[in-house]
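lol so apparently i was supposed to do this last week
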Amino acid sequence: MTFRAPVSEYEFLLNNVVGYGDVSATDRFAEAPSDVVSAILNEAGKMCDEVLAPLQRNGDLTPAYLENGVLRTSPGFADGFKAISEGGWIGMSAPEEYGGMALPLTVATAVNEMMAGACLSLQLAPLMSQGQIEALEHHASDAIKELYLPKLITGEWSGTMNLTEPQAGSDVGALSSKAEPNGDGTYAVTGQKIFISWGDNDFCENVCHLVLARLPDGVPGTKGISLFLVPKFLPDADGKPGKANDLKVVSLEHKMGLHGSPTCVMQYDGATGWLVGEEHGGMAAMFTMMNNARLGVGGQGVGAGEGAYQHALVYALERKQGKTASGSIVDHADVRRMLMEMKADLFASRAILLACAQAIDMQTATGEKDWAARAAFLTPIAKAFGTDTGIRISETGVQVHGGMGFIEESGAAQYYRDVRVTAIYEGTNGIQSMDLVARKMMDGGETAFALIDEIEERAERARATHPNMAESVWQACESLREATEWLVAQEDIQDRFAGAVPYLRAFARVLGGHYHLAAAMADQGGPREKLARFYITRMLPEHASLLAHAQAGAGGTFALSLDELAG
Ligand SMILES: Cc1cc2nc3c(=O)[nH]c(=O)nc-3n(C[C@H](O)[C@H](O)[C@H](O)COP(=O)(O)OP(=O)(O)OC[C@H]3O[C@@H](n4cnc5c(N)ncnc54)[C@H](O)[C@@H]3O)c2cc1C
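anyway here it is w/ flavin-adenine dinucleotide bound
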């Protein structure tokens, strides 16, 4: 299956929908105007199409494995990682002083998504390094930054993120890994971590683990957690990988999908580590990495959705069944419905992803608190809606294939199996939704209402050219406003939590209408206007049932006793 990175889609979105011009108009990002970004996207797209996409099946058919304690990666993955490193794609938004390109995160987000569409399991490796680079940049000592950042950015070394333990998943504060001061400025880290993505590989000369652990005087819960950098090989006096550290990969998980990405059980036995950030300030440092990773994982969902869509379209164009104008199933109305829904939701989720990245760039460039609030608000939506969309599209992709979708040789199922985990890791989508209706509404809904106002303003402007579509978006937005008012008025947080998932999805649906409307205005008479009409007429109305669900409170969800649930 050939993959074509959606470069022109990105160009259109950046230039017409999410206001990339505001980013490149800042001093901070003045060196990345639209034409430069186009050149970058084209270059990255070429690598995705030619180098990464051919590796996608390898990861599934020949997963990573352990051989006498040595991790062997899937065929071709070492070359793929080399191409990503040599292209500079790991350090796209990293500081120039350490060898990065200092590009806007908006551009990095687009490139990450294209790489995910080409080969999701390999793309997770640079994504992990990018998160680590950002955490070190903001929280590590100068000595650590000088030694580690250039090597992580060139891809000579790779990064991982170690939070999860058997008893500490969503509840990170329950972790029991320990760190004892060695008396020389280093710490001895001991504990077991599970589900560690790319916990090892055979293509980087060192693997650097960011590990959450508790110091002897660390209080229980998240407040007592510290963050440590624990490399596989201890750097020698010249900064080269030296003695092996006291850590190992115990085993690899057998997973539903994403087989090319080794998911490791890691054992630390008094391994030497360096503190990153403050003592007991581990969660603050880790949040830097997690926010970056949440946006990145949202992009994984959209990317995988793109791959699944392209795969399904090729099949639909070739498969002959029944009488249609073209002779192929693509002209059956129900198959068209599936393809249109896939395409319309890809557009919506990609626009939300980019809008979130754009807000982060504006926050970086201006330091304005409104941009910070907008970025924080959009992050859980970009993560949850991006990944749910990838899952839904890849599941629909299986359906487009009919029986062949259920047969592994067609490759349709791989997209679904691979992307399924994205709704689970980096904070499940349930946890993202709770974050949206609780922490992100601690301002009494101010950030949400500012965004709602903006959506309505665009709808008002669109009335002149697209009265029906504009009215639908405006009405949906009013319903969203009422639901948001209801949510912030609830005193019992359980009443918010019970409807958090449908609320997040409804918000994303309305945002999708907002961005589709912008596309329609920019492409009057063109295909994007037609796609917008499809979305606004047929998919946006879903917001109504979602909002009814969101405002129903917790009572109903607890209506059945545990016995009745089992009965
Ligand atoms: C392939 C893969 C790769 C991974 N990579 C990494 C990695 O690199 N590093 C790392 O540290 N971890 C990694 N993880 C772990 C991942 O982040 C966790 O699986 C995830 O955070 C969920 O934790 P859990 O599995 O313990 O589920 P649980 O926390 O047990 O959740 C089970 C269910 O309960 C819900 N739930 C839990 N708590 C609450 C709550 N307070 N309110 C409402 N609902 C709740 C969840 O939403 C979920 O539906 C990976 C996992 C997988 C499968």
